[in-house]
Every structure is written in structure tokens, then in C-alpha cells.
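Sequence only, no structure available. Ideas?
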Amino acid sequence: MTIRTVWHAPTGQTPEDTRLATSALLTPVGALTSRGGVLPGGLELKGLGAFQCQIMPGRAVVQTGDRQGAYLVVVTEDETVTLAPSSPDGSRKDRIVLAIEDNPYDASGAARAVIKVIQGVTAVTGPQEPAAPPNTLPLFTVTVARNAGHIDWATAVENRRYPTAALGGIVPTGGFNGWYKGQYRDNGDRLERWTGGQNGAWETYPRPQAWRPWTPSWTVASGTNPVPGNWTHDCWYVQNGLTVHFTFRVVFGSTTNFQSSTTNWRFGLPVASTARHTHGIGFAELHHVAVPTPLPAKPSDRGVGRMRITGANWFEIELSSGLARGAAPGIGIIDAAFPWAWTNGDHIVGSGTYEAATPA
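Reply:
I predicted one. C-alpha cells follow.
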């Protein structure tokens, strides 16, 4: 039959039926195949004697052929493993593997899971690991040094286990492709999500937000709005969740029309803020260029302003310092005439952080 169920028909369920159907609960790597590996924290190795070690309890999945299925294995007690003694002719690398033996498929005459040693070839220099036989899961590689009286279990062992997880679980390693959109893995220092599709790829999750430019609006509390003209602006923002960071720089130009209104200037936010409209969100430097004419000439000057949200979509700048040249202009929100009569070349540079009304 090509359609199989388990724990359904009163008779006739085979071991193969059980393996293929229950693999629906494992991390898929193909239509009928699953990711083999060791469940995290299991099948550790500890040295026992000169050439003996033990594989400690744990659970694993050994994926075989498409139709043979995935074998779920549990080791409930320490398993003793014995490696061959060293050789005077050179050193070697031995593999310790978890092997599946199943007579209908391999004519082994057995139906079991067993931990085996695949002995490597002795070499004077550069011994190589032996190839892993089919239907095995690598656990460890052990270097047996030339003429060694014992194995240094602290330095001679290389971990060859790779982890796996149940369907929907987060596999704690990298180095493999995903199978379905929305699959996750823990790649050491970041969580990644598989995008799916023909050109699927792993992407950091949540996806890092990029800085984006924005053009601030420029209005007044009442009266006629200023006209930017040929001002230049360099304003950028990034939103992560409800948090917005932004930088703000505007340089007024020769055709900028400040108008004559002395009501508060308002600059648009990149995204709407919450209802908390009175919070300070950052600081800005106010820079006034020298004006040689008409006489008397006016020198350059600077001041610091506090950016303060006064509406859901804008902020105002409140002078929060004296001026660099010692003038005492008073306090208040900047406008066309405060803290000076603005002119071509004057600029405002600042940055801030605030809470957005809706998450990114």
C-alpha cells in the first residue's frame, strides 16, 4: 500500500509502517526523510580505561533510506566501547558510530541498534577518519597515537554528533538547509528562520531593521507654514518594535522662507508616536552662521535645544541652554525669530529616541 497509517488497522501494521508514519513528528529534510542526529544533551563520552570509554544515556534519530525510514533510538544505560590498542607503525583515527542493523534491508541477520567502532587506517603522518557505513550516525572520532599506552580522553576525542529536534523544534546548530517556510534554528549567536521556496535561505530572526531616510515636515503651531525651498536635509530613522531611533539634520538654504510667524516650529516625526506627548526625546544643536551684512555684522552662534514631542506626529525644540556667545535670549520653543533671526546656512543637528504608536 502507498497510504499507511499506524495504530489504526487491527492487524498488519509493520515496523516500516510505524517508522514512516511517526517520522511526521520529526524535523523534515525531505518528503519522507527526517533530520537524523542526537537530541541535545545526550550520548556524551567519558573515558573509562586505557582504551575503553563509555557512551552515556541519550536519544537519537538515525535516518536511513526513504522507504526504510527513521529509527528512534534510546540508550538507557552507559554503553562500554573498546578500541584496539595502539600500533608501533603509526597513529590512526577511529570513528564511534550508532549503527542500525535490520535484516530485511541489510541481510545482517539482526534487528538492533548498536554502538560500533570503525577502525581507521594506521598512518605515520596525517591519519584519516574512516568513512561511515550506511545507516549509521557519527558520534565521536578518537585519535589513537603511535605506541601510546593509553588514550588521552581529554584531548584525543573530537565530537561528531549533530543535533536534531522534533517537528517545529529549534535545532541548535547551523550548517544545513531548511525544508519548510517558518523553520527555525539556533546558529550559535542568533536565531534564524528559513524563508522557504525554491531559493530559500536562512535569515536572522527577527530580521534586523535597516535605517531609512525620511523627509520631515516643517510647520508652525498657527499661522503660515515656512517653506523649505532649497534647504538640505539628512534625516534617518530605524524602528525596532515600538522603539524608534532617529537622526535629524537640516540646513536652511537661500530660498528657504522662514515666514514672519513667531509661533512654535514643528518638525514631523518619521512615524507617529504614542499619546505621551510631553516627553523629551533627544537634543539638537542649533547653529547660526555669521551674517556680515547688513551692518552691524552678526557673529556666528550656537545653542542646545531639547527635542520634545508635543503632538502624535511632530516634535518641537525648546532652547535648553544659553548661547555660546553669552547672550541670554530667554526660554521657549524655537521659531522664525528665536533664539535668533534664522538665515541661509543656519542648521539644526540632533538625534532622539521615542516610543511609536504601533510596532514595526
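The chain has a mean pLDDT of 92.
Hope that gets you unstuck.
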